[in-house]
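Task: sequence in, structure out. Protein: Carbonic anhydrase.
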Amino acid sequence: MDFHRFVQHARAHAKTRSRAAGQKLAAGQQPTTMFITCADSRIVTAEITGAEPGSLFELRTAGNVIPPYSLTAPTSEMATIEFAVLQLGVSEIVVCGHSYCGAVMALNGAKIDHLPAMRGWLRPRQRTRQPSDPAMRAEGQEHVREQLDVLLAYPFVAEKVANGELRVHGWFYDIETGEVSACAEQAFLPL
Ligand SMILES: [Zn+2]
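Result:
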C-alpha cells in the first residue's frame, strides 16, 4: 500500500464511524489489555487480536524491547507502562515478539553500523552465537522471556502480579504462518 492510499483511506475514515461510536470513544478509554510489540509493519495488532478501538492499549518499540525500570532515567516506554497499569488499571499485559524480527537479528550478529541509535540501544543485550534458523524463532522467543523478566521487575507490575490484579503474558507471532504461541514454563506452546 502506498502513502496515497493511506491518505484516501484517512479522508474516508470519518464516514465509517457512527456518531454514537465516536461519542462512546470520546467519553474515555477502559482497555483491559496492554499489548507491547515490535514496530514491525507486518504486525497488525487488530488483525491478530480482533481488537476494536478502545480495547487494546499499545506500546510499540524497536524489537519490543522494554527498558529496565529506573526513575533516574525515565523513558517513554516506562511512562507508557506506568500509565497502563496505574492509571488505566489494565489486568493483562502481553509482550509479543515475532519471527524475522530485525532487532532480534541485530541482537544476534546482523550488521547495524549505519544505525547508531539502534546499535547503542541493543549493544548491552547483544549475543555472540550464530543462530541457524533464518527466522530466528528460538532467539525471538528467548528475547520475549528476557523482556518479561524486565517487565516483572517494574515495582508496580511486581506488586500487582503478586496481588493477582495483573497477569503478564509472553506471545510469539510467526510472520509466515500467522500462528501465535504463548510462553509456558519450558517452551512456547500454541495459544
Ligand atoms: Zn521486530
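The longest strand covers residues 92-98.
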